[in-house]
Amino acid sequence: MAHKKEIFEDIPNGKKIFSKKLEKTDRDVQLIVPTRVLEQFPIENGYYERDFTAFDASGREWKFILAIRQIGKYDKPFLRPPKWHEFVVAHGLSGDDAEYGVVFYKDNNGDLQVRGLKKYHSPLFGKAIWEKV
Predict the structure, then answer these.
(1) Closest CA to 114 of 29, 20, 5
(2) What is the 8-class DSSP label of residue 96?
(3) Are residues 114 and 87 in contact, defined by beta-carbon separation less than 8 angstroms?
(4) Main localization of the protein (predicted)?
């Protein structure tokens, strides 16, 4: 299954790693990550996961685990559930009342940032707008 298009455009004062709309599995179980992310966050040969830290808008540190499946032809990267699910709940990204997303990016200092996103529809332009929450 192909990953959805990026939902959040360029990041001012930073470089986007990836963004995506959160599907039910992403919100309730684990975040499925685009395979290209492994180019920037490689997992050592013989291992199936690696830790990394990202900061939210309030400066809170989130210690996520990026993992790949242990069998099969393709890596299929994902974020392990414990911290990811805690992030989803803390940022109110789990409701069925709206569409939600996430963006990971490096700021100009090289620190990895993570933001929850909520989709709004602009009455002026009739266009969907993803805003950080």
Answers:
(1) 20
(2) S
(3) yes
(4) nucleus
Domains and CATH numbers, the chain: 14-132 (2.40.330.10)
The residue behind tokens 């993992």 is: 67
Among candidates 94, 120, 89, 101, which has minimal Cα distance to 20? 101
Label residue 1 exposed, middle or buried (CB < 10 Å: 0-12, 13-18, 19+).
exposed
- Tokens 């290209």 correspond to what residue? 36
Backbone angles phi, psi at 39, to 5 degrees: -65, -35
Q: What is the pLDDT of residues 71-88, one digit of tens each?
A: 878 889 999 999 999 999
Give the position of tokens 């180019």. 39
Contact 33, 42 (CB under 8 A): no
What is d(CA 103, CA 10) in angstroms, rounded to the nearest whole number? 10
- The predicted-structure confidence for 13-47, as pLDDT tens digits, reads as follows 899 999 999 999 999 999 999 999 999 999 999 99
